[in-house]
Amino acid sequence: MRLQDKIAIVTGAAHGLGKAYAQRFAEEGAKVVVADIDVLAGEAVAGAIDGWARTTDTSDWESVQGLMRETVARFGRIDILLNNAAVYERAHIWHGLLEDVPLEEWDRLMAVNLRGVFLCCKAVIPQMKLQRAGKILTIASSTFFSGLGDIPHYTASKGGVVGLTRVLAKQLGPWGITANCFTPGSTLTDEEITDEVMAFRRQGAARRSNGRIEMPEDVVGTAVFLASADSDFISGSTIVVDGGGTIY
Q1: In the chain, where the domains are located
Q2: Does the pLDDT value for residue 198 go beyond 90?
Q3: pLDDT of 100 strictly over 90
Q4: Residue 154 annotated to the active site
Q5: Which of 3, 109, 110, 123 could be disulfide-bonded to 28 (CB atoms 3.0-4.6 Å)?
Q6: Strand order in the sheet with 7-11
Q7: Catalytic residue among 21, 88, 154, 248
């Protein structure tokens, strides 16, 4: 119960790793706000963990402001913000050379992956400053270190998240607020496990020190650590969670 009675917002919590973070935070005693643009899936996750679903588009400033305002009105505070919402679905994200990235594809991805993180942080900071306490967690990607995957817009967005986290740590430390980042590797979060999916995940496993596929349970412990009092003296750090695929 390392997060007992903490109020935690998890964006993009209706699916994939976001769902796993929300479930684990709830198991650790937190009251979880499931913030996702997918209304029905968000409500299902919230119902299963006794949380609260709040439909949110993290790329929209008014939607994000409403999320923070309504969370404070309902629970009185915000202790943890986990910025998980991102555009990345292997089958639907554009792949190719940097010079060939369609401009609309670049803008679509950046609107969520980087601008969305910025908006959520911008909206939550006044409340955390008022409390003189808070944990901001961001999620980058091991592609930031390797440059692999032919997804230049995605990799650039995650590099931006790392940089933003470092600035937050410097600026918010005097208020007792920490900001840290972690970078999962290719993780088996697919809702439909096909032979093609498994082949792709095995490619990632082959590059790791431990040689196995990464599962959601391999990642969520790091999120709990960074959200808990155990990490109070850590800020501005980036923790790689990819089974030794990246030595950093």
Answers
A1: 7-241
A2: no
A3: yes
A4: yes
A5: 3
A6: 52-55, 31-36, 7-11, 80-83, 134-139, 177-184, 238-241
A7: 154
pTM of the predicted protein model: 0.92
Q: How far is CA 93 from the centre of its chain?
A: 18
Looking at the DSSP bridge assignments, the partners of residue 180 are: 137
Phi, psi of 43 (to 5 degrees): -65, -35
Domain 7-241 has CATH 3.40.50.720: yes
Answer yes or no: is pLDDT of 246 > 60.
yes
**Res 175: pLDDT:** 98
**pLDDT at position 201:** 67
Does the pLDDT at position 89 exceed 70? no
Beta-carbon contacts of 165 under 8 Å, excluding residues fewer than 6 positions away, are 136, 138, 140, 179, 180, 181, 236, 238
Confidence of residue 18 (pLDDT cuts 50, 70, 90): very high
β-bridge partners, 35: 11, 54
How far apart are alpha carbons 248 and 209 in whole angstroms? 13
At 21, list the tokens: 């973070």
Q: Which long-range contacts (CB under 8 A, 24 or more apart) does 63-72 make?
A: 64/116, 64/119, 64/120, 64/122, 64/123, 65/123, 67/9, 67/33, 67/35, 67/120, 67/123, 68/9, 68/123, 68/124, 68/127, 71/7, 71/9, 71/33, 72/127
Q: Which two tokens stand for residue 142?
A: 């091991």
